[in-house]
Amino acid sequence: MRKSLLKNILLIMLLLTSLVFISGQQGCESNTAQKTGIDFSLINRQDTLQAGKVLQAVETFYIGIRVDNYDKKERQIEVCIEDTVLDQYGGIVGSANCQQEYLPAAELIKRQASNSFASNKEELVPGTKEIFFPQQGQYSYQNLPKMNQPFSSNLIIRVRYPEITQATTAIYVPDATQPALTQEPSQIMASLQKSIYPQGDAYNVNLDLTFVKNPYSEIFLQDFVTGNKTYFDVKMASQSLECRTTNGLPVGNTLEIKNTKTIRCSKTVYQGAQRQDYDFVLTMIYGVVLQKEYSFSINTAQEV
């Protein structure tokens, strides 16, 4: 009796252990969180400038930048650099230190599971480009005033690119179902709330659009001069809608978005009581600017 009970207990413990193992393996494989957008970092090489590096007097160096595109579409980017040292001391001189580069799209690659219990998963591999400055020669700092402590400076890197994004859905009239926008990852994400009111032999359709901007990026009109604005167009069944801000001001073909923004777009549709589906398309066109700063210093005490 005791041996039979002991066997049953051991069997139950073995089954529980196997379940925990399998659940843990499946949990690891299902972790598919993916990055979006563009990111960049300094290339760490002996002859390149890195964050925290102390350059010696008249030491020559390059600036290497790795740019990663986590979006599944190609990008045409511009990368610009500058420093906070006066031009008379050399380094990154002037304001024309920019390069235009093509950035390939990210790809989803299928990875084989590590064991028979786990399922296969997809891994997002970013499109990557390595960019080096200057394209000819090398940088160096000279004739800086001699100081007992290293001279502090910052390297500033800006990556900018144009963005065209659309959000689409179907608007059902008359119907209380709330629409869900379909939109690719973007620096400005939109959401939609619908309300419908009968008006004689027609229906008044109100669409409240809320926009949320990525706080870590700056947006501009396509001229890359006018900040916090995007070109804006919204249509329902290929017809333009009348849009106003929460203060009642009309919205034209540009929209200012500093952090978040809510507007109301309206349209009157004439139809019978039977439900109709209307295609809704929101289009935004803007420029994106990403900026990072890296501190470094220059040892001037040994300069001769």
How far is the N terminus from the C terminus? 93 Å
The CATH fourth-level homologous superfamily of the largest domain:
Immunoglobulins
Strand content: over 45%
Kindly identify the CATH topology of the largest domain: Immunoglobulin-like
| CATH class assignment of the largest domain | Mainly Beta
The main β sheet shows up as: 10 strands, mixed
Overall 3D shape: elongated
Radius of gyration over alpha carbons? Answer: 28 Å
Q: What fraction, in percent, of the residue positions are helical? A: under 10%
How many domain regions? Answer: 2
Mean pLDDT: 87
The count of β-strands is: 19
| Class from helix and strand fractions | mainly beta
Number of helices: 1
- Compressed to H and E, one letter per element, the order equals HEEEEEEEEEEEEEEEEEEE
Q: Give me the CATH architecture of the largest domain, please.
A: Sandwich
Q: What is the oligomeric state here? A: single chain
List low-pLDDT spans.
9-32
Describe the structure.
This protein is mostly beta strands and about 300 residues long. The chain folds into two domains: about 40-160 and about 290-300, Immunoglobulin-like, CATH 2.60.40.10; about 165-285, Immunoglobulin-like (Sandwich). The protein is about 10% helix and about 50% strand. It has one helix and 19 strands. Strands 2, 4, 5, 9, 10, 13, 14, 15, 17 and 19 form a ten-stranded mixed sheet that branches. Strands 11-12-18-16 form a four-stranded antiparallel sheet, with no helix packed on it. A three-stranded antiparallel sheet has the order 1-3-8, with no helix packed on it. A hairpin with an 8-residue loop joins strand 9 and strand 10 (about 180-185). The longest helix has 28 residues, at about 1-30.
